[in-house]
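go over this:
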Amino acid sequence: KVVLQSKLDRENTNKYTVIVSCADSGFPSLLAKVEFTVIVLDENDQKPVFSLRTYEATMFENNTAGT
């Protein structure tokens, strides 16, 4: 199990290469290693800014989508 110690931020680093190694205490010791890549997805972490307090719009019921 790999656990983050802090939140990832794509603006700082968008990709990490992680290597996890495990070994037992036997003799001879058995070792396993795996490498994987973590790609950080972008999140909109900026609050929206509106210039007006209220916006109003009117549309007709049977309008074609995208008009």
User: Anything to note?
Assistant: Residues 12-41 form one domain. Residues 48 and 54 are 14 Å apart (CA to CA). The radius of gyration is 25 Å.
